[in-house]
Design brief:
The chain is α+β, with helices and mostly antiparallel strands and 103 residues long. 22% of the residues lie in helices and 27% in strands. Strands 2-1-5-3-4 form a 5-stranded mixed β-sheet, with helices on one face. The longest helix has 11 residues. The radius of gyration is 18 Å and the shape is elongated.
Length: 103
């Protein structure tokens, strides 16, 4: 019987995305999977004590036990706070564009 699960580890920059597919033993934690993936060697500035991580867009802790087909995401710090950007636009009287089409 195969006691391995398939997972993905994802990290995205504005100009590059990395997606690694791995097989890890059942019972592997999120933190352990990130370490064995090799992504910390590729992006040496990732600091798991500061970078937030999640599974499928939901923030998670490093000690969460993974399930088959989980996608681990390592998040970058935001350059600008989205609420602050919207507030500044509103102050400047700029209309926010919604949707992709033109009227």
């Amino acid at each position: 019987m195969n006691n391995k699960i398939k997972i993905e580890v994802v990290y995205a920059l504005s100009h590059e995305q990395t997606l690694l597919t791995l097989e890890v033993p059942q019972g592997t934690t999120l933190g352990d999977a990130i370490k064995v993936s090799g992504i910390l060697e590729k992006y040496t500035y990732i600091d798991l004590t500061n970078n937030k991580v999640g599974i499928f867009g939901k923030l998670s802790k490093l000690d969460v036990v993974l399930r088959d087909k989980d996608r681990i995401e390592i998040y970058r710090p935001l350059i600008a706070d989205p609420k602050e950007v919207r507030r500044k636009r509103a102050e400047e009287g700029k209309a926010m564009k919604k949707g992709g089409g033109e009227a």
